[in-house]
Amino acid sequence: MKVVVTVVEKISSEAHIDIPDGLDEPAIKEYITDLYNSGEMLTDLNISQVNFESISAQVLKPQLSTNSLSL
């Protein structure tokens, strides 16, 4: 029997990064977004928490082969 299991989880990650002094809030958001989009921040991310939101399973019915049918 084959079963497809789907796990939906919410992962919280944190990164400790240095931001240049003197930036206003929009500039800080842009700086962090640019770091993330460039891939530079990915190596710094540490998973700090995982919350499972749902787990479901679907049983797959076996498919009959057309070669095994007798008429």
Report the helical percentage.
Answer: 10-25%
| Mean pLDDT score | 84
| Widest β-sheet, arrangement of strands | 1-2
In whole angstroms, the N-to-C terminal distance is: 27 Å
Class per helix and strand makeup: alpha+beta
Order of helices and strands: EHE
Tell me the radius of gyration: 23 Å
Provide keyphrases for this structure.
1 helix; about 20% helix; elongated; about 70 residues; two-stranded antiparallel sheet; alpha+beta
Give a written overview of the molecule.
The protein has one helix spanning 25-38; strands at 2-14, 46-60. The protein is an alpha+beta fold and 71 residues long. It is built from one helix and two strands. The model has no long low-confidence stretch (mean pLDDT 84). The two termini are 27 Å apart.
Offer a quick outline of the entry.
This protein has one helix and two strands; from the N terminus they run βαβ. It has 71 residues and is of the alpha+beta class.
Secondary structure elements and pairings:
Blueprint: E1 2-14, H1 25-38, E2 46-60
Antiparallel strand pairs: 1-2
